[in-house]
Amino acid sequence: MSKIAFIFPGQGAQKAGMGQDFYENFPTAKAVFDQSSQWLGLDMKELCFTENDRLNLTEYTQAALVTTCMAMELVIEEQGLHPDITAGLSLGEYCAIAAAGGMTLEDAVKTVRKRGILMEQAVPAGLGAMAAVLGLEAAQIEKITEKIQGVSIANYNCPGQIVITGEKEAVQEAGEQLKAAGAKRVLPLNVSGPFHSAMLTQAGEELGKVLETVSLQKLKIPYVTNVTAEQITDSNKTKALLARQIAASVRWQQSVENMIADGTDTFVEIGPGRTLAGFMKKINRDVTVYNIQTAEDMKKVIQTMKGE
């Protein structure tokens, strides 16, 4: 039996104007942005819809992206398209949990706001780094990074694209060795910290304390966790996994492969950008992938999926 997955992008997908047409055309989306502004004491319309410097700062980006993606997701469900399973890349996992019924919108937005601040403050600027490694097998990258202290794999995005993270010098050293081992390119990423590295372990512990104050609901459908790439059906596991996720590798490729093995053949990326759709082409070309960034995209996708 075929299944539909809703998938949500992570930090880096944000762009000015995201979600604006949903806000202007759907009361449900407008309510999400307005409520989020109220809960956080931030003007979400200004943050998401206008050109500004704050949108790319981690402490603002995370709340802005979750607000936007969830405003879109709720409208998509209102229009009659529902997922059988959800997943999200790093930050996107909060949308996946909320869409699966495991966390209220308010708790998701408030938690990622605190998560963004904790991640921003975790490591002094300039001490950490991240880099995308292109064209090298995961096993080769693991073999090299395991021998260099202070560097590890942040993201298993798709075949041929893996991100490394950690101490600046260690990432640079690993980059040289990976190029020598045959990597096509090693591209430094413009990020504010060494996300998904051991340097964020303390931030994960602090986030764990924040999560203790959150009440989780029973999941209506499963979601896939980044930490183990396994399907989660019991929300009692969620808090510990989210606390670990900050410093753990994001197993995105494995997550997608898990969903496909379980019968998922249609993936709907919800949110700005086409990052996940791009990864999907390299993970498995046999599945159907849709991308919804605008209200017009949503209309076309729903018409296509309903065979109209």
Global morphology: globular
Uncertain spans, ≥5 residues at pLDDT below 50? none
Under CATH, the topology of the largest domain can be stated as Malonyl-Coenzyme A Acyl Carrier Protein, domain 2
Sheet with most strands: 6 strands, mixed
| CATH H-level superfamily of the largest domain | Malonyl-Coenzyme A Acyl Carrier Protein, domain 2
N-to-C order of helices and strands: EHHHHEHHEHEEHEHEEHHEHEH
Q: Give the helix tally.
A: 13
Using DSSP, what is the number of strands? 10
CATH class of the largest domain: Alpha Beta
Oligomer: single chain
Q: Specify the helix fraction band.
A: 40-55%
Structural class: alpha/beta
Cross-sheet strand order for the largest sheet: 8-7-2-1-9-10
Distance between the termini: 21 Å
Number of domains: 2
Named CATH architecture of the largest domain: 3-Layer(aba) Sandwich
Mean pLDDT: 95
Strand content: 15-25%
Gyration radius from CA atoms, angstroms: 19 Å
